[in-house]
Amino acid sequence: MRTLPVLLLLLASPLAQAQVFKCVDANGAVTYTNDRNQGRGCKQLSDDQAVSSVPSPPKRSSAQPTPSNFPRVAPDAQRARDDTRRQVLEKELATEEAALAEAQKAVTEQEGRYQGAERRLPVVQARLQPLRDTVELHQRNIEALRKELGNLK
């Protein structure tokens, strides 16, 4: 009975071995495969190498030069574009800040209608929640606009 597992182990081990091929395409991308059909024209790796299933990190290519036919923008034109963008963002920010003030005012007015323990009732909370959600939305929009304005040169 003890010989059966040993015999199975000895028979299974040759099946676990496979030829591994390293293929490099025209772009320099490396692919490892054990498929003989894909392995044509590829280099067979020796059997004594350690194999890892963790993919290597992608290659970081050096900065690509700008193609000669790439459209260029004159510095003055780019500055004008940036100024226009800044004005648009500042106008959107002012609009969002005004909308936030109105939303906060609406929440305060609605909360003022209810006294003490009545404020904690689920029905009251359900009525107030959409107003609070509107306040949060305007706050997130203001935060995003300020971040975008901070990213401008």
From TrEMBL:
Record keywords, A-Z: Signal
Database matches in InterPro entries: DUF4124
Domain of life: Bacteria
Basic and acidic residues bias (residue ranges): 78-87
SUPFAM superfamilies, alphabetized: Tropomyosin (SSF57997)
Amino acid composition bias (Polar residues), ranges on this chain: 59-69
Signal peptide segment: 1-18
Residue intervals of the DUF4124 domain: 7-59
Residues covered by region (Disordered): 35-87
Protein name: DUF4124 domain-containing protein
Organism (species): Aromatoleum evansii (Azoarcus evansii)
